[in-house]
Amino acid sequence: RGAPSGAGMWAEISTAAAFVTRLLRAAAGIDEEQLRFFRECLQEALREHYEHHWFPRQPSKGSGYRCIRIGHQMDPLIGKAAGTIGLSHERLLQLLPSELTLWVDPFEVSYRIGDDGSICVLYESPQPGGKTTEPVESRTSCTEERTIDRASPSKNYSMMTVPI
């Protein structure tokens, strides 16, 4: 069974929601209050969606279910949160990278822009009883771009930290 009531997934969900919010902030003239509300709604949507699909003892189990994907269509969880601040799916597809995959798993949140881009780690935490991993902040981080080229994403992403 998955973890009940969002237990143990707050850091991961918060990191994912903050990342998508930062992408919107960089791309559009959306005011901070709307962005704050979007982030809260996305966090709640993710918590509800992952509630019975969160397996800290088997972090890769359910990974596909927890994957957030923007391709030719908008991910429904992002679309639902954006609808609360009046952003349509069509407008979101214009504002966010045209190919974005975000994996929200126990102990790690990572993303890829473009189908052949590098995977960047946003959040990583040691697994209980597992080997200790190096904190994300101590590694070389991705250069954060103010403007993301939606037609031809950079293939040089390696990691990006997002304050939560």
UniProtKB/TrEMBL annotation:
Q: Which SMART domains match?
A: btg1
- Which domain of life does the protein's organism represent? Eukaryota
Q: Which InterPro entries is this protein grouped with? A: Anti_prolifrtn, BTG, BTG-like_sf
Q: Which Pfam family is one of those matched by this entry? A: BTG
The Anti-proliferative protein domain is annotated at 9-116
Its cellular-component GO annotations read: cytoplasm; nucleus
Record GO biological process: negative regulation of cell population proliferation
The family annotation for this protein states: Belongs to the BTG family.
Its protein name is: BTG1 protein
Q: Which organism is it from?
A: Glareola pratincola
Q: Source taxonomy lineage?
A: Eukaryota, Metazoa, Chordata, Craniata, Vertebrata
